[in-house]
Design brief:
The chain is 38% helix and 19% strand. It is α/β, with parallel strands linked by helices and 656 residues long. Strands 1, 2, 3, 4, 8, 13 and 14 form a seven-stranded parallel β-sheet that branches. Strands 19, 20, 21, 22, 25 and 28 form a six-stranded antiparallel β-sheet that branches. The longest helix is centred in the middle third of the chain and has 31 residues. The protein binds 5'-O-[(L-methionyl)-sulphamoyl]adenosine.
């Protein structure tokens, strides 16, 4: 069995996770779940980076012991990750005395023993936000270009790591391993940086208590990045369980943000080379997620709490948005408006509607059961989608993987529109064709759900359940689960809308929280366990739900509702939704009324029906045709329309 060990960056805990840090964990989780689906022996590591000066200061501000503060923050982070359905296998903290501290001490000792650590004096600027010594040439107007703050001036006795010695070995390693750094833009940046020359790195801080003491100089602690990078090895046994370390190390993939790629691609490999340890397989530097085009920060007051979306909709719509809409490796933008738009388009209208239609028609026309059979056009498409999905996911083009799954979803929707199972159902001679068409659609939905399992674990599992998949999602394996099934019978479950459409524009009203980002303000230390999929409007909505406005009977009576009989019906050319009706409303001549019900009814299903219309609506022109009235229909949550039928009665009779 192939083993696959992947990691994310470990987070500074001076504030709670925000959408940006969550983006990294969500995308890494998608990768981890994809590998589990492939059957790989997957190990997914995450954790917290605690020995930062900012963490220490934040604890002091709150009058807390730093370790007690970090303990509380661990719970905060775990709660957020649980709320987003992040399936990490292990969570390492840099204050872990059993695993991490011995590993860091062993690694720094190994570098010393190899002649790569020496004593010297450091003098220069240090940015606490970056936890990095900043060469003066990198400052802009004397400020850190990232944090826009003035670095502290430091002059102290330090231990140095001979990073300069590794310039050539690193360049050779990059050349020999072209996919070590991805995407290419990051690789080019790193190669250029190393070609420009490397200076030795200070790896200790003198006279500080918050950190891991150097084994050969207990008056100094290990520099926080040297400490933090070691987490990838410390979690899997380095320095405390050699057999475990031999089994898991090296990591196959480190997922980190583009701002810290160079720490991972330069310092970390040099540390490992010095200690004589194997290097990780691949380092992927993802882009940044901005909010309305701005970096999320306390000063901007634009921190997005990922749990806001997860509490209201479950984590899946947010996971889908971030995976599908942000090209992996590039930057992306998040706005609540766009999120709402994509929720309606991708979930309510497309995937949700598809699941509903297949389940509702199977229930109605086939008593909820379908016999498997050889595939038609969707089978070929499903095979193509699975192939290009796997190729994309292996290349870490997550957005392309999701797009492949969605190609299948859209094709299944189109297939239903073309084959019109509701028309087939009217002709008993077409019963076989009807059963074939519905199975074809249901099987395509099932395969699309398998492809979406890593992205939307609980929704895809629910779709699989509705499509009669007998295996539990964790037992499915990519190759067999994405193969078209040609035998057996299955029960299809019609269980209502998965993602009710958000009708009002701006339905998601979220106050932009000011709860702080890394280097920002006080964290909310209460545990905020999310009520997943709860029906309650748990978003941080500014106000309680408002009761609908009441009207008087006089106002109601202004609306003239009348019984009408449909005489003729025809689709409006070039319109997907509109049907043109000629209706008898008890007047001298029939009226023309346009109704947006073409996706739910065929024209011939309408002729002869007795319905209810609004008779005194001002005329309106749609697609060049004047409509004189409105047909009453219900709009179910999953989309579509349901006509309000009346008992056959005299056209023109008032309805009240
Ligand atoms: N503690 C270090 C990492 C040490 S790894 C040995 C750190 N922590 S962090 O909390 O500042 O960031 C954690 C991760 O989140 C980093 O990979 C960082 O790039 C990522 N992101 C932080 N803000 C982000 C966005 N707005 N968008 C995407 N990722 C971002 O750096």
């Amino acid at each position: 069995m192939t083993s696959f060990f992947l990691t994310t960056a470990i987070d500074f805990v001076n504030s709670r996770p925000h959408l940006g840090t969550a983006y990294e964990k969500i995308t890494a989780d998608v990768i981890a779940r994809y590998h589990r689906l492939k059957g790989d022996d997957t190990w997914f590591l995450m954790g917290n980076d605690e020995h930062s000066q900012n963490v220490f200061r934040r604890a002091q501000e709150q009058g807390k012991d730093p370790l007690a503060y970090c303990d509380e923050m661990e719970q905060v982070f775990r709660d957020v990750w649980r709320g987003l359905d992040i399936s990490f296998d292990d969570f390492i903290r840099t204050t872990d005395q059993k695993r991490h501290v011995p590993a860091v001490q062993r690694l720094v000792q190994a570098c010393l023993d190899n002649g790569d650590v020496y004593e010297g004096t450091y003098e220069g600027p240090y940015c606490v936000g970056c936890e990095e010594f900043k060469p003066e040439k990198d400052l802009v107007d004397g400020l850190c270009p990232i944090h826009k703050t003035k670095p502290e001036w430091i002059r102290e006795k330090n231990w140095f790591f001979r990073l300069s010695r590794y310039q050539r070995p690193l360049l050779k390693f990059y050349a020999d391993h072209p996919s070590f750094i991805e995407p290419e833009v990051r690789r080019n940046e790193v190669v250029r940086l190393v070609e420009d020359g490397l200076v030795d790195l200070s790896i200790s801080r003198a006279g500080q208590s918050w950190g891991i003491p150097l084994p050969f100089d207990p008056t100094s602690v290990v520099y926080v990045w040297f400490d933090a990078l070691t987490n990838y090895a410390s979690a899997v046994g380095y320095g405390w369980d050699d057999a475990l370390f031999a089994k898991r190390w090296p990591a196959n993939l480190h997922i980190v943000g583009k701002d810290i790629t160079r720490f991972h691609c330069v310092i970390w490999p040099a540390m490992l080379m010095s200690a004589g340890l194997p290097l990780p397989g691949r380092i992927f530097g993802h882009g940044w997620v901005f909010f309305k085009g701005e970096r999320m920060s306390k000063t901007m007051g634009n921190i997005v709490d990922p749990l806001d979306a997860a509490k209201r909709f479950g984590p899946d719509p947010l996971r889908l948005y971030l995976t599908k809409e942000v090209p992996y490796g590039g930057d992306g933008d998040f706005t609540w408006e766009r999120f709402e738009e994509k929720y309606n388009a991708d979930l309510a209208n497309n995937l949700g509607n598809l699941v509903n239609r297949v389940a509702a028609m199977t229930e109605r026309f086939q008593h909820g059961r379908l016999a498997a059979g050889a595939g038609g056009p969707l089978a070929a498409l499903a095979a193509e989608a699975a192939r290009s999905y796997a190729g994309a996911m292996d290349r870490l083009a997550l957005h392309e993987g999701v797009a492949a799954a969605y190609r299948l979803v859209s094709a299944a929707n189109e297939y239903i529109a073309e084959t019109q199972p509701w028309s087939l159902a009217k002709d008993p001679a077409k019963a076989d064709a009807l059963a074939r068409v519905l199975y074809e659609a249901a099987e395509a939905v099932r395969i699309a759900a398998v492809l979406l399992l890593p992205v939307m674990p609980s929704s895809a599992a629910e779709i699989l359940r509705r499509m009669g998949e007998p295996a539990s999602p964790g037992d499915l394996r990519f190759d067999t689960a994405t193969a078209w099934r040609t035998s057996g019978e299955r029960g299809i479950l019609n269980a209502g809308a998965l993602w009710p459409r958000l009708e009002d524009k701006g339905a998601i009203t979220v106050s932009e929280t000011k709860s702080g980002d890394a280097g920002a303000e006080a964290p909310a230390l209460h545990s905020e366990a999310p009520a997943l999929h709860s029906e309650a409007p748990a978003l941080r909505t500014p106000a309680a739900p408002v009761a609908p406005e009441q009207i008087s009977i006089d106002e109601f009576m202004k609306v003239q509702l009348k019984v009408a009989r449909v005489l003729e019906a025809a689709r409006v050319p070039k319109s997907k939704k509109l049907v043109q009706l000629s209706v008898d409303v008890g007047e001298a001549t029939p009226r023309t009324i346009l109704a947006g019900i073409a996706e739910s009814y065929e024209p011939e299903q309408l002729v002869g029906r007795t319905i209810v219309v609004v008779a005194n609506l001002k005329p309106a022109k749609l697609m060049g045709i004047e409509s004189n009235g409105m047909v009453l229909a219900a709009s179910p949550e999953g989309g579509g329309a349901l006509l309000i039928d009346a008992e056959p009665g005299a056209p023109g009779t008032r309805v009240r």
